Amino acid sequence: MTTHSVTFPGIDQTVSSIGAKVAKARAERGWSLQQLGHRAGVSAAAIHKIEKSGMTPTIATLMKIAAALGKSVGFFIEEGDAPRPVTVIRRDERSLLYTSKQGLVLENISGRYGPFYLAGAEATVEPGADSGPERMTHPGEELALVLEGSLVFEVDGEEHLLAEGDSVHFRTSVPHAWRNPADEPARLVWLVIRST
After folding, report:
1. In 51-117, where do the E strands start and end?
2. What are the residue ranges in the chain where pLDDT is below 70?
3. What number of other Cβ atoms are within 10 A of residue 44's Cβ?
4. Are the C-beta atoms of 152 and 160 separated by less than 8 Å?
5. Sign of torsion over alpha carbons 168, 171, 173, 174
6. Per-residue confidence (pLDDT) for residue 84, from 0 to 100
7. Cys-Cys with 107: which of 37, 94, 101, 157 at CB 3.0–4.6 Å?
8. Angstrom distances, CA of residue 109 to CA of 42, 89, 106, 157, 160
9. Rounded to an integer, what distance in angstroms lies between the CA atom of residue 196 and that of residue 194?
10. pLDDT at site 52
11. Longest pairwise C-alpha distance within the chain
């Protein structure tokens, strides 16, 4: 019995582009292999192999990596990244965004991260929650508007206490952190612009 191997050029090309898309998304956030691995629950070695197209990830692994990067699995397997002209997110259809920060809930208000440079969330920060012991740096900008409660943003060593109606806008290439010093949750609109 003769078997014939069938090739699927489109599929092969899509699969081989997954690694490059993972590497690009990771670089846009300024994350190391270890940082992405920690956020995704995948070993840094596995991510390295995926990025170098030495390993095709399982669907489960790709889902973990996509969630950590704030992207859909579809972003990694779609052909091309043609932006959609408009995205509408209904209040009752918001998805939760992955975050490794305790006491922070992010509801997606901007849709998929892939086609656009701007991403946004309605954030709820629990009393006493903070961004962690280390100051963050990554490419891009952040703009936060406090809707309820208060939040402290530390940007480049200077603290700014924001109350209801206050906003802060800064480049994220400088060290920054945040914390809720109050006894009540803070609610804010949080926008992130990634640099190209």
Report:
1. 96-97, 104-108
2. 1-14, 78-85, 112-115, 194-196
3. 15
4. yes
5. negative
6. 56
7. 94
8. 27, 6, 9, 30, 25
9. 7
10. 84
11. 76
Describe the strand order of the beta sheet including 167-171 as a list of residue ranges.
96-97, 104-108, 118-125, 186-193, 141-148, 167-171
Amino acid occupying residue 109: I
Q: Which residue has the tokens 């929650």?
A: 129
Rounded Cα distance, 7 and 11, in Å? 9
| Residue 24 identity (one-letter amino acid) | K
In whole angstroms, how far apart are CA 184 and each of 91, 101, 154, 156, 159?
A: 23, 18, 19, 26, 20
Q: What pLDDT is stored for residue 174 in this prediction?
A: 94
Q: Quick one: DSSP state of residue 130?
A: B
